[in-house]
Amino acid sequence: MDQPRFDHTPSSEALRQAVLLGARGAEFASLEQGEEYVAVHIRRPARTNEIGPDTHPDRWLTVEWYAQLIGAIRHVEEFSECPVRVYSLGEPSSFVSLAALKNVEVHLNGERDSDFVQLAAARLLVAAPSSFSFNAALVSRGAVLVRVPWWHHLPNEGRWVHMDSAGEFQAADMRRAVSSSFLLRPRGV
User: Between residues 25 and 181, which one has the greater pLDDT?
Assistant: First the structure.
């Protein structure tokens, strides 16, 4: 099988239903109806042996890279004032620069299933190079910002927005994703 061409997105609705019918389904549904927020997943190794000589260098993006990306997201009108919630593993001292940003909350070392539904319920999910946040993106009905290339096929239509390795994305693509998202409500509603 050619992994870069394998499209997981047809499984989105089945995954979504599994989450809604699961132990966190009510929490997930409530979060989707609640306050709008941007969720950012920062992939960090869960175990020290996850980083080795064959680890792809783009797998572990820096906190500075994410700070720049949050700044770019703030230039999108629909997200200019939206709270940003960052989810990751690690020590608080490694995330000081993000925690210092206006209207950004850093959630570290959280419970896996709770973090998953928080990511999936976001109005905009920034997926890390990680199957964890990619699966949350499949479950989500919000807009999704994802780096390409990925290990598998990623749509570049509807609610999915591609960004390059520098974290740059097209404003027109973000506007399209915002209008395609089932979750985004008009401002002030």
Answer: 25
CA separation for the pair 109, 88 (Å, rounded): 6
Global confidence as pTM: 0.86
* Residue showing tokens 């709770």: 114
DSSP string, the chain: --GGG---GGGHHHHHHHHHTSTTHHHHHHHHHS---EEEE----SSGGG--TTS-GGGS--HHHHHHHHHHHHTSGGGSS--EEEEE-S-GGGGHHHHTSTTEEEEES--HHHHHHHHHT-SEEEE-SSHHHHHHHHH--SEEEEESS-SS----STTEEEE-TTS---HHHHHHHHHH-SS---TT-
